[in-house]
Amino acid sequence: MSQLHWFLDDEKALKRFKIIRELSQQFSNRAALHDTDSSFPHENIAALRQAGYVSWTVPEMYGGLGLSLYELLAHQEELAQGDGSTALAIGWHMGLFLNLSATDALPEEVFAEVATTAVQNGWLMNSCATEPATGSPSRGGRPQTTARQVEDGFLLTGRKTFSTLSPELHWILITAGIEDSEDVGEFLITGNQVQIVETWNMMGMRATGSHDIVMENIFVPHRYLVARLKPGEKSPRNRDGGGWMLHIPACYLGIAMAARDFAVRYAAEYRPNSLAQPISHVPHIQEKLGQMEMKLLSARTLMYDMARRWDRASKSDRPTLRPALGTVKTIAVQAAMDVVDLAMRVVGAQSLSRSYPLERFYRDVRAGLHNPPMDDVVLRMLSEAAVNEIQKTRNSDSRLPLF
Ligand SMILES: Cc1cc2nc3c(=O)[nH]c(=O)nc-3n(C[C@H](O)[C@H](O)[C@H](O)COP(=O)(O)OP(=O)(O)OC[C@H]3O[C@@H](n4cnc5c(N)ncnc54)[C@H](O)[C@@H]3O)c2cc1C
After folding, report:
1. CA 318, CA 236: separation in Å to the nearest integer?
2. Acyl-CoA dehydrogenase/oxidase N-terminal domain: from which residue to which, for each copy (predicted)?
C-alpha cells in the first residue's frame, strides 16, 4: 500500500491524487468563508476545471481519462477533506459521467455532445429531479414539472429543489410529467434556460449551491427527450446498479477523515496543566481515537472493495450489486457521523468553536442521511435480496430445512 493513499497503488493514479491533494488544501482555506456566507465556491470549480479534473470520468473516446470508480472515490474523499460542499457538488458531475458511460442511457450523439463539451469547455452536468411535492425522486412520485408537446419538441414548466451545483451547471437532466399521458420524460436542458432562485440556506453543505431552478415554458427539441418512461418503469440510468453514487459515501468519509486528523493533532498537542503529557495519553481519549480509526478503516475498506467489484463486474451483473452498494452508503454515513462525534468529544468544548472546523464537519456529515439511497430503502433491498437468494437455493441445498 502506498503511504500517500492507503487504497491507491497505481502510479498514474497517485500522480493525479497529488494534484487533487494540492487543490484540496487550497479549498480548505476558503471552506469556512463559503460556509458562513452560504456562497458558491466558483474559484474551486475554476481550479478543478483548470486541472482538467472535470473531464477525468469522461470516456477516453471523447478525450477524457475514463477513470475507474475506484480511483474517483480516492479523489472525491480527498476533495471532501478540504471542502465537503465542493466535493459533493463536483461529485454529481463526475459520477454522472460514469453512470451515463456504464448505462448508454443517452442517445449516442447527445452523449458525444455532452462529453465533448465537458472536455473542451469544462461544462458541468447534474441531474435535478427533486421537487417539493415528490420529495426524494427515488420514491417514484410523478414529477409536477410538466412537458407539453409542441411542434418540434416540448415546453417545460416547473420547479426543482435541491439542485446542487446550480450556479455552474451547463447541462441539466430534468424529469417531467408529459401532458395528456401517464408517461414521465427525462429531458436534457441547458443552464441558461432556467432561472436560479437562491433558496439554499441549510445547516450543512451550505456551499453546494443546491438552489431551486425554475422553468417557464422552456423549449426542448425532440432530440433532448432522452427517455420516455411508462408509470413504474425505471430510467435506463438505473441499469448500472448505482455504482457511481459511491461518490456520496466518499464525500462524507472525507469529511470524517478531516475531523479525525483535527482531533488526533489536537490530542497529540494539547496538554492541560493537570497532566504531565498531552491528552493523547489518557485512556478514554485513546479509546475514542481507536474507535475512530476502526470505523474509518471498516467503512472505507467496504467502499473500496465494492467499487472494485463494480469496476470489474459485467454490465449484466452490475444491477445485482445495488443492495451492497447501498449498504456502503448507509454504513459510511453512519461511520462518518460517529467519527465526527467522537472527534468532538476528544477535543471537548473547543469543538464547538466557530474558529475551528469541527462544528462545520458536524453539520455537513448530517446531510448524508438525506442523499440517496435512503436507509430504509437499503434495508428493504438487502432483506429482499436475502430472501430471494435463499428461495432460489432451498431445493438444492440440503443443509436448509423445509418448513
Ligand atoms: C446536500 C444535498 C444535495 C442534494 N443534491 C441533489 C441534486 O443534485 N439533485 C436532486 O435531484 N436532489 C438532490 N438532493 C435531494 C435528495 O436526493 C432528496 O430528494 C431530498 O433530500 C429529499 O429527501 P427526503 O427523504 O428528505 O424527502 P422526502 O421524500 O419528502 O421524505 C421525507 C420523509 O418521509 C419519508 N418518506 C417519504 N416518502 C416515502 C415513501 N414513499 N416511503 C417511505 N418513506 C417515505 C422519508 O423517509 C423521510 O423520513 C440533495 C439533498 C441534499 C441534502
Report:
1. 13
2. 25-110
Q: What is the pLDDT of residues 286-322, one digit of tens each?
A: 999 999 999 999 999 999 999 999 999 999 999 999 9
* pLDDT tens sequence across 69-128: 999 999 999 999 999 999 999 999 999 999 999 999 999 999 999 999 999 999 999 999
| Fold classified for 241-391 | Butyryl-CoA Dehydrogenase, subunit A; domain 3 (1.20.140)
- Spatial distance between the Cα atoms of 263 and 73, rounded to a whole number of angstroms: 23
Residue 398 above 90 pLDDT?
Answer: no
Q: Which amino acid is at 140?
A: G
Mutate to test the pocket of ligand 1, among 86, 93, 136 (most ligand atoms within 8 A of CB): 136
The string of pLDDT tens digits covering residues 254-270 is 999 999 999 999 999 99
128-233 architecture in CATH? Beta Barrel (2.40)
Please say whether the structural domain 11-123 has been given the CATH code 2.40.10.120. no
From the list 26, 8, 25, the residue with the least C-alpha distance to 17 is: 8
**Peptide bond between residue 272 and the one before it cis (omega within 30 degrees of 0):** no
Q: How far, in Å, is the centroid of ligand 1 from the Cα of 402? A: 41
> Distance from the CA of 173 to the center of ligand 1, in angstroms?
17
In the predicted structure, residue 1 carries a pLDDT above the cut 60: no
Instruction: Say what the pLDDT of residue 56 is.
Output: 98
- Ligand 1 touching residue 370 (CB < 6 A): yes
Chain centroid, CA 296 distance in Å: 18
How many angstroms does the Cα of residue 332 sit away from the middle of ligand 1?
Answer: 18
Among 346, 347, 341, which residue's Cα sits nearest to residue 362?
A: 341
Q: Which amino acid is at 220?
A: V
Nearest partner of 262 among 329, 332, 362, 333, judged by Cα: 362
